[in-house]
Design the sequence.
């Protein structure tokens, strides 16, 4: 049966993976947070953190203005980036504040590209919180606008 499977069969996960929100937990970064100096500044760390080269499957990058936005992609699509081991709720909150409510935290499966352990792990990623189709079509995103206004008014 495995002989007839696609080459990426073992790395594809069709069902959502529910990870506990315990710390420490790896976060996958794909944009400005792939720069260690940026993570150091946001988290107010005494030195640049060690980020691990990593990738996630089943996602794609779209542009939200000048910024990359992670959206659901096709099976087998890969997004390259870096992962950081978030050590506390405080660090997670600082990252969420930096990312704004244009992004929401989602569970993901992270595959590391280095020789260290673990080779893969469940983690977190910041995904675009609006309408991915509107983003791809470069039209006004009412879902994201409502989400942003809700925070300002609520």
Sequence:
């Amino acid at each position: 049966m495995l002989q007839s499977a696609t080459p990426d069969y073992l790395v594809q996960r069709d069902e959502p993976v529910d990870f506990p929100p315990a710390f420490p937990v790896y976060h996958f970064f794909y944009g400005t947070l792939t720069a260690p100096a940026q993570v150091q500044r946001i988290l107010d760390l005494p030195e640049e953190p060690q980020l691990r080269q990593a990738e996630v499957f089943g996602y794609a990058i779209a542009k939200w203005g000048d910024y990359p936005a992670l959206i659901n992609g096709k099976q087998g699509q890969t997004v390259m980036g870096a992962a950081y081991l978030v050590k506390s709720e405080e660090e997670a909150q600082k990252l969420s504040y930096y990312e704004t409510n244009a992004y929401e935290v989602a569970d993901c499966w992270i595959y590391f590209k280095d020789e260290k352990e673990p080779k893969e792990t469940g983690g977190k990623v910041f995904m675009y919180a609006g309408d991915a189709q509107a983003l791809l079509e470069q039209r006004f995103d009412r879902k994201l606008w409502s989400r942003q206004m809700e925070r300002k008014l609520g």
